[in-house]
Amino acid sequence: MRPVTKTVLKTALGLGLAGAGVLGWASLVERNAFVLRRFDVPVLPDGAAPLRVLHLSDLHLLPRQRAKRAWVHSLASLDPDLVITTGDNIAAPDAVPALLDAYERLLGIPGVFVLGSNDYFAPKLKNPLGYLTRNFAKGVGTTQRLPTADLVRGLGSRGWVDLTNRRDTLTVRGLRVDVRGVDDPHLGYDRLDLVRGPASPDADVTLSVTHAPYQRVLDAYAADGADLIVAGHTHGGQVCVPGYGALVTNCDLDTSRVKGLSRWWPGAGSTPSSQAPADAAWLEVSAGLGTAPTAPVRLACRPEATLLTLVPRSQA
Ligand SMILES: [Fe+2]
């Protein structure tokens, strides 16, 4: 064999092995390497005691995923004051009992929830790397329905408040919390007209939630004076480039806000961060805890839950 041919074959073999190694890591190791992120968010009145908010999103749970169920179950030991789930809880018609089992200890704590497209429709088989290329405007890819009513009934029966195109006011550890949410904007189910308006006059803090962080929703929430906006859906980009970050958000949010804590104000999508007003809302986007079962890989983007500690604004 000529030396050049030998070199080409060696290189191809090396690249193939490296690719298989990365795929193995992404599908077998990182996809199950759950991590808890923590952020302090200065949104409370002066003198208020800290409020601990646990945010879960995008479990895409299958009953066989025992490690994920156990990890979520263990989060109750954080002793949060409020739990927020931002949808895409399940990934199969028989997953609701497993989900309620995973949430069992958390359901004894005050909570609010909105739904994502994967709480309505089952995923369909597709290219695992399609997350990087598919048009985010395509919405749902199948018409097989999931047991959404069972899911909503299961969460609501223990007292969690359904914020699907609804707003409410909760009292949590003595604080009046204005909460509002929309149905999934990725499906065009959001009815902002039902939740718009200024916060209750006696509210100490305003929390606004959505599954998918589309700009039209974030703009409306910020214009109405939201202190904190909480969202999921992006999976943090799911398949990211090590040292660079996300390539996509699966919606019209920019990749700099694909996960973690940032700021949002009306029109933020078309103005630089340096022009953020002092009263801009805080935006927390979760990279979520799962993947669609048809695309079971995560790279440079560990599955996560978030513990937000709300503290007085003076601590900013
Ligand atoms: Fe999701």
From TrEMBL:
It comes from the Bacteria. Residues 51-236 form the Calcineurin-like phosphoesterase domain. InterPro entries: Calcineurin-like_PHP (IPR004843), Metallo-depent_PP-like (IPR029052), Metallophosphoesterase_sf (IPR051158). Pfam families: Metallophos. This is Metallophosphoesterase. The lineage of its organism: Bacteria, Bacillati, Actinomycetota, Actinomycetes, Micrococcales.
